[in-house]
Design a protein that fits this description.
D-amino Acid Aminotransferase, Chain A, domain 1, alpha+beta, 6 helices, 6-stranded mixed beta sheet, globular, 6-stranded antiparallel beta sheet, Phosphorylase Kinase, domain 1, 2 domains
Length: about 250
């Protein structure tokens, strides 16, 4: 394996210098974290599944005309992506009450919302990724009003697409988190979808049984995390039974 320069390492992914200017290699780790990294484990095969699921979804979004950083999958754990400047805002779209929404507002888990809610969180681990308003975002210069409008418009379109995609395979999309980045295109700066969309970043419930098929299996000590992710991939038609998700750690230059 070629030796590559590591650009950044997060909780679940590593970014390496790409083969061409303006590109990066995104490597999916098996690490599972929760509660701002207070809970941590290594779940063998999780990175492979997230890579495949995120590849499938991002490819579909590219086809729809939603700009993303995804170029192509390189191998079982890695993708070639466009290099972007990440906007320090996490966008969360909620269709059903769950997680922190229930804790903040006392709502019963599973309550279907009258309309989808779009929330913004400031990406800052030391502060615990606090909930912020549109006014906070524009006042502190984290994103311009136009960038914020673009992010909200894409988030709503992505929600519509994902809701239909998962409903078609018997899965309810409860909520999801996405991130965006800035990319220079000619003389223009545009906002594009970045990071990943996978069971790590979505709440997914079986439509008939409400069984959780996402990262909440790790958060809530339910077990069967990889099996749940495999079920999501199987229903989407992208998990091949003879693939054996395993470790394939990269060689890196510090």
């Amino acid at each position: 394996m070629n030796r590559r320069r590591r650009i950044y390492e997060g909780k679940a992914k590593i970014l390496y210098e790409g083969p061409e200017p303006g590109t990066l290699v995104q490597h999916f780790k098996d690490d599972a974290t929760a509660f701002n990294n207070q809970k941590h484990d290594v779940i063998d095969g999780k990175g492979v599944l997230n890579n495949r699921i995120s590849e499938f979804i991002f490819s579909q979004l590219n086809t729809m005309g939603i700009p993303t950083h995804f170029i192509r999958r390189l191998n079982m754990r890695e993708q070639l992506i466009r290099q972007v400047e990440i906007v320090p805002i996490e966008v969360v779209v909620r269709n059903i009450a769950a997680g922190s929404l229930c804790k903040r507002l006392g709502a019963e888990e599973g309550t279907r919302l009258n309309r989808s809610i779009v929330e913004f969180y400031y990406k800052n681990d030391e502060l615990g990724d606090p909930l912020v308003s549109e006014e906070h975002i524009t006042s502190f210069g984290w994103a311009s009003p136009q960038e914020l409008d673009d992010m909200m418009t894409m988030a709503i379109r992505i929600n519509d697409f994902l809701t239909g995609l998962f409903l078609g395979v018997g899965i309810t999309l409860v909520d999801f988190k996405i991130e965006f980045g800035r990319q220079i295109e000619g003389d223009m700066m545009r906002i594009i979808l970045a990071d990943e969309i996978s069971p790590d970043s979505c709440r997914l419930w079986d439509t008939n049984t409400s069984e959780k098929l996402d990262k909440d299996r790790f958060r809530q000590n339910l077990g069967g995390m990889v099996e749940a992710y495999q079920e999501v991939a199987r229903r989407l038609g992208i998990f091949i039974d003879n693939e054996r998700p395993g470790h394939s750690g990269p060689v890196l230059v510090k």
